[in-house]
Amino acid sequence: MIDTLKHKGMRKKLIEELRLKGIDNELVLDAMMDIPRHLFFFDTAFLHMAYVDKAFPIGSGQTISQPYTVAFQTSLLNPRKREKILEIGTGSGYQTAVLAKLGMKIFTIERQQALHAKSQSLLEEMGYKARCYYGDGYAGKPAFAPFDKILVTCGAPHIPEDLKNQLKVGGRMVIPVGEFNGVQHMMSLDKVSETEFEVSNHGDFQFVPMLERTDTRD
Ligand code: SAH
Hints:
The protein has helices at 5-20, 26-34, 67-77, 94-101, 113-126, 161-165; strands at residues 56-59, 62-64, 84-88, 105-110, 131-134, 147-152, 167-177, 184-191, 197-205. It is of the alpha/beta class. Helix 1 runs antiparallel to helix 2 (26-34). The longest helix has 16 residues, at 5-20. The structure holds S-adenosyl-L-homocysteine (SAH). The site of S-adenosyl-L-homocysteine (SAH) has 23 residues, from strand 2, helix 4 and strand 4.
């Protein structure tokens, strides 16, 4: 699959749309302008949907996040080069690619084996550096903690203690929290000391649920 001028044109329009919707982090917009989102659509029948601002099915009952949501969460993280980030929910790998483009050092976990395998090989093929793991994001990656940033891209019923513990003091976690099959609140947690967090709510979003354990038979 290749990136054509037509794709670039569609991408440019999408970026303008994100700007109109209030995204103003130029680094994030530049990264998204560079990344061929259509290559993360595993089913080529739907390539024409790649530059519409919508979530879309990627198999295993999961979705590639809506571009606005990716832009919003990434901006909220305030990403900086060389920061160490833990991402929960690799999915298609698109959000991972955005973080890689921004120069972050990425550890990403996916609980669906098939998606993990596909996104890992796609990211490698495209030259985006990320350490991809098959596993349960609730446990995080204690061996590589602490992280400067933690990004959760599935809807969590609560904020997992293990993830709070794996965040650096001075670091930030962005996580959508709320009931399964309902609306989630986009929360940011700034870790101000080993035991204290400043928490803010940035509005309502909808995500696929953050499920426990690794199981493809959901
Ligand atoms: N960032 C992805 C979003 C994919 S949707 C993208 O842009 O494509 C969220 C993903 O979280 C799904 O692939 C789902 O399988 C995964 N997920 C759900 N619960 C999880 C858990 N406990 N640990 C790791 N991944 C999980």
